[in-house]
Fold 1,4-alpha-glucan branching enzyme.
Amino acid sequence: MDIMNYCKGDEFEAYDYLGAHVGKNGTVFRTYAPNASKVSVIGDFSQWKELSMEPVGDGRFFELRVKSAEEGMRYKYRIYDSKGSFIDHCDPYGFGMEVRPGTCSVIRSIKDYSFGDDEWLEFRSDCRDKPMNIYEVHLGSWKRRSDEDSEGWFSYGEIADELIGYVREYGYNYIELMPLGEHPCDESWGYQCTGFFAPTSRYGTPAELMELVDKCHKNGIGVIMDFVPVHFAVDHYALTEYDGTKLYEYPYDDIGYNEWGSRNFDHGKGEVRSFIQSAADYWLSVYHFDGLRMDAVRNMIYWNGDEHRGENRTAIDFLRSMNCGLKARHPSAVIAAEDSSAYPKVTAPVFDGGLGFDYKWDLGWMHDTLDYFRSAPMYRSRDYHKLTFSMLYFYNEKFILPLSHDEVVHGKATIAQKMNGQYNAKFPQARALYMYMIVHPGKKLNFMGNEIAQLREWDEKRQQDWDMLKYPLHNSFREYIKELNYIYLKHKALWYDYDPTNFEWSDCNSVDRCVYAVRRKAAEGDILAVFNFSDWFQSGYSVTVGEKYDAELLLDSDDQLYSGTTPHGKTAFSSYGGRLTMDIPPFSGRMFLLKLKKEQ
């Protein structure tokens, strides 16, 4: 590692030098503690007695080879400050940690697993003009063990085959895993991290996680990981005041802490920049993840996410630098921003003044859409343009449409529960909502449990309510989502999200009727979707499709097959004079394939 590059903030592979590296002659430990008066390593290999480390490089790094230190042994660094006091810290660059409540780093080799995904990596893309249907997963609560003498977690290896089979069967082509860096508190869901290079040991070893990713690739599934570049856990044994000074964090409390009570990274320090971007590169390079979803980007753009406090120019510069470096090293990887601000050009190239992300979550679309479906039918004419507003700004960024974990916790209710009305009324509206999501431009993201119309908010300590599938409304809802996903993966018209010529409103003016018609265009055939979001049956609705086109029904959300009211195979419509005419049941959507008529 080039020490000068590290200190300037230009290093992307600091993990190759720092941390605990297993070799033929033991393990080499290295850490960066520029303000420490002394550093020792302690661990299982020394019966927890101090082994003094030697200053190396320019004196800011400390190193020691320990012949008796082996894979699987625990260790910490005992770091003395300038006054001679010490705290035992886990390794910032450690490749493993013990299960909480333990706080030690664990020696792990990250070079023993042999991937078999060369073909996948060679041909993968950022999906700009391809389908991206993401299934967001919290590994600890998708499914859990029932035995009482365990924590309930399946390991990475144990869950791999079942999760992959499920994702393939139900029409998703990407999995997004909530943060996997080691974290002490289950309730933080991984967002308050202590081990930025250590996959959480709750679910097994680094090699098992590599195998999970490898198996996904062999089955045609991409894997994105949630990554936290903004802040870190306050626990004293981790990054907090690592060398006796505020090394990774800001020196001032007003900007040093955030709304979650965790510590903010000081992105102006070179060693912090090298640390974060090396961690990002680590997951892409070592574990073969296909992308990263960067959490809480707003809190980097503005001081603690507050526009009134102004832009954090240093953090913005870091985002640009990191994204440039990551894309240069991994051109086909996906770097997505979870950003709730209206800051411009988040997905524009850095050379054009942008932040350099590939995608941004469209939280505006999510809020407006869910607000609309919460409202009583009598008010939907008033709220009509909440569903059209998103297309006024859509082409400003490359958006992902998220119905994520954030929308099914903290008293917000699940997606199905958000639908207006009583139990039976929620399902047709949820079916129509998801059809609207599929035909709206933007890549798709759906949190686990949404596809079974779960009625209980997500709890990280409980598995999804799979037993709900014994009820016809829930089981048929999942089958409907499956069919919808298959249609999305099959039809190219639904992929060209960022080409303005691909989309048109065929009807966005039927305010009193609460009817919409959306058309997506492609040479292989157009997709037309017609929606009635009112609570009354609408007869004789007509929409222009053009005389050159034949219409084929792809999906009716009101089909009895999916617990609707229209007998299966009996959806009626007529095409004459370039117009498509039909009756539309309440709370329903119909999707058609429009193909050019064959010349006689």
In short: The chain has a mean pLDDT of 96.
